[in-house]
Design a protein that fits this description.
By secondary structure, the protein is of the alpha+beta class. It is built from two helices and five strands. Strand 3 (28-33) and strand 4 (36-41) form a beta hairpin. It is elongated, with a radius of gyration of 17 Å.
Length: 90
């Protein structure tokens, strides 16, 4: 996965992750979410360098946040499109 802070990756869970641990040899990541324990083979998890993180995220979106969702997440922060090429969610 590279040095600390150099790579990021998204590991999908349906619920918030409450615990994370590496295997002793460092080849697997173990995550806990509610009553689900998952073991991830780090050799097949796609790392994303920090400079490509935003375009990587944009590829997976279909719309921007709606104004009401934005307000719920960012309170008083003025609304703006996160991905200028995508429509606003209604």
């Amino acid at each position: 996965m590279g040095g600390l802070g150099r790579h990021r990756t998204r590991i999908r869970h349906t619920d918030p992750v409450t615990s994370v641990s590496f295997s002793p040899e460092g080849s697997h990541l173990i995550t806990v979410s509610r009553k689900i324990v998952r073991v991830w083979d780090l050799a097949v998890v796609q790392p994303v360098t920090i400079d490509k993180l935003i375009p990587f995220a944009w590829q997976r979106l279909t719309t921007n946040l709606s104004r009401s969702r934005w307000a719920g997440l960012f309170n008083e922060e003025p609304y703006r499109l996160i991905c200028p090429d995508l429509p606003e969610d209604s």
